[in-house]
Specification:
By secondary structure, the chain is an alpha/beta fold. Among the domains are: 81 residues, Gyrase A, domain 2; 173 residues, Isoleucyl-tRNA Synthetase, Domain 1. It contains 21 helices and 13 strands. The chain has a four-stranded parallel β-sheet with strand order 5-4-9-10, with helices on both faces. It has a three-stranded antiparallel β-sheet with strand order 1-3-2. Strands 6-7-8 form a three-stranded antiparallel β-sheet. Strand 2 and strand 3 form a beta hairpin. The radius of gyration is 28 Å and the shape is globular. Arginine (ARG) binds next to helix 13. The site of arginine (ARG) has 9 residues, from helix 13.
Length: 557
């Protein structure tokens, strides 16, 4: 609507201002008594050499159209009131006809590659990996809604010197049966033991280095141990992905690039970017510490593998964008990575973007799955599902398939709690708070939507025609929110911010609940049909918002 009004104004101004410029100037008045949109004329005063008020008065006479009911001038502001029913008719029609396609864009033939989740083999799936998983998955869905093809890559941490340590630890203290039972916990235990022992036994570190070297050179025994650790860990990760409803197109992790790194080193050498430093090879960078490419013994590093991965993805997918959804603390790593790509002359470095995020906190402290006792994420998720089950027991004891709904609500609560915050913020993990059906929670959105479905069922609603014939004044906020959904999705994409959609869904749910509290829907009159059409449209957009965030929408709860 903003665009439409901007178009009308820019025409009235005889095109000395573009629609876009005008759109940027349009404001949403503080309260509805001042209209639905306001256009301040101050900025035009200079160009027109007239007083802003005079401009406003002249311009106001030229603003009219099907959706405009009234135009008032107040202190150099042009306040525009929409023809609410006419406007609502179009919006509701759009939503009801397009259903879950509403707010989307047609396929644009371009690709977005998203590197996310990326946990480390033989280590617990951390809260940071959970955040990456949830944010990355939402961004992939949002990209698809914007017309892109999304490729979801899990860049597993399955290579590096730590595997030398792990293999040595296994050879010293490993218990095959225990690992088969409980791979990550057991492997992590001996890995931690390795570190404790290595503090006063330097020989261990040396042995680990040699072991990794052997692994990189393809030693059969080492390789088969590594494969086993990887597969067993992956199985456990799969459980978490199943719970979260997240899937990947590729699990090519760091190890995948093992045979591709020599070309990177060669290319860096050819382009005269490598420099020796204490026997190691580094790339010097401006305003940043140098980036280590190979160690003294020739072993490669995390950064080397990321360089190989970026080149491979560029070749393989030709992505319009390459997103790395990785914690804040790796900012320098990605700055270095992109800077090296640029130095190598790759224009696609411009399309690479690190999407950072803050920490997960519990009682104000960093929530860790690393130190001390291993807290496995699957257990945390089970706890939230349990809490959701208890809530449902109180709210709706008669509900059928309680277990399935509790799953969707418990998991949805965790995802929403993460995504409702701007990603750079640290977020608090409070199971109690996130599973309540009120307040800024996922269950609140799910509950609102389920309520609408109950309402539609009670009213025996069927969609006869998709046009409204009547609109309650109290529903006007809802209509405006529904109309803004395509814009909301677009902004969420351009700012790589699922929070924009999460916050939007909260506004929409709140706005609907307010309307619902003050309106009798099921009156049996002809107005009932129109009210239910609005309710149905709200549920379509709530469900689609939840889907984009990676959250299920039970029809009953
Ligand atoms: N495995 C890494 C970690 O846990 C994250 C990898 C992120 N992706 C990447 N291409 N570097 O810290």
């Amino acid at each position: 609507m903003k665009t439409k009004l901007a178009g009308i104004i820019s025409l009235a101004l005889e095109e000395s201002y573009s629609t876009q410029e005008i759109e940027g100037l349009l404001e949403t008045p503080k309260h509805t008594g001042l209209g639905d949109l306001a256009f301040p004329c101050f900025t035009l005063a200079k160009a027109y050499k007239k007083s802003p008020t005079l401009i406003a008065e002249e311009l106001a006479t030229k603003i009219h159209g099907k959706f405009i009911k009234e135009v008032r001038v107040e202190n150099a502001y042009i306040n525009v009131f929409f023809n609410q029913l006419q406007f609502a008719k179009e919006v509701i029609h759009n939503v009801l006809v397009h259903k879950n396609q509403y707010g989307g864009k047609p396929k644009n033939g371009q690709m977005v590659v998203l590197d996310f989740s990326s946990p480390n083999i033989a280590k617990p799936f951390s809260m940071g990996h959970l955040r990456s998983t949830v944010i990355g998955n939402a961004l992939a869905n949002i990209s698809e809604k914007q017309g892109y093809e999304a490729t979801r890559i899990n860049h597993l941490g399955d290579w590096g010197t730590q595997f030398g340590k792990l293999i040595v630890a296994y050879q010293l203290w490993g218990n095959k049966e225990a690992i088969e039972q409980n791979p990550i916990e057991e492997l992590f235990k001996i890995y931690v033991k390795f570190h404790d022992e290595a503090v006063h036994n330097e020989a261990l570190n040396n042995q680990a280095r040699l072991t990794f070297k052997a692994l990189e050179e393809g030693n059969d025994e080492m390789l088969s141990l590594w494969k086993w650790f990887r597969l067993a860990s992956l199985k456990e990760f799969e459980q978490i992905y199943n719970m979260l409803g997240v899937s990947f197109d590729s699990f090519s992790g760091e190890a995948f690039y093992n045979d591709k790194m020599e070309f990177v080193v060669e290319e860096l050498t050819e382009k005269e970017l490598l420099e020796e430093s204490d026997g190691a090879m580094v790339v010097q960078l401006e305003n940043m510490p140098p980036c280590l490419i190979t160690k003294k013994d020739g072993a490669t590093l995390y950064a080397t593998r990321d360089l190989a991965a970026a080149l491979y993805r560029h070749k393989m997918y030709q992505p319009a964008k390459l997103f790395y959804i990785v914690g804040n603390e790796q900012s320098l790593h990605f700055k270095q990575l992109f800077a090296i790509l640029k130095k190598m002359g790759y224009a696609f470095a411009e399309n690479c973007e690190h999407i950072p995020f803050g920490m997960m906190l519990k009682d104000g402290k960093k929530m860790s799955t690393r130190k001390g006792k291993v807290v496995l994420l699957a257990d945390v998720l089970k706890e939230t599902i349990e809490a959701a089950k208890n809530n449902i027991e109180v709210k709706n004891p008669g509900l059928l398939n309680k277990a399935a709904v509790a799953n969707e609500v418990g998991i949805g609560a965790v995802i929403f709690n993460d995504l409702k915050n701007d990603r750079m913020n640290d977020i608090e993990f409070s199971i109690e708070k996130m599973v309540t059906f009120e307040g800024e929670t996922g269950p609140y959105i799910q509950y609102t939507n389920a309520r609408i479905h109950t309402l539609l069922a009670k009213g025996e609603f069927t969609l006869s025609d998709s046009y409204l014939h009547y609109l309650d004044t109290e529903a006007w906020e809802i209509i405006k929110l529904l109309e803004s959904f395509p814009n909301v999705v677009e902004n969420a994409f351009s700012q790589a911010s699922p929070a924009i959609i999460a916050k939007y869904s909260l506004s929409l749910a709140r706005s609907f609940n307010k309307y619902y509290a003050n309106t009798k829907f099921l009156t049996g009159e002809s107005l009932e049909k129109d009210r239910l059409k609005v309710a149905y449209a709200v549920s379509i957009v709530l469900e689609e918002s939840l889907r984009l965030l990676g959250i299920k929408a039970p029809k009953e709860m």
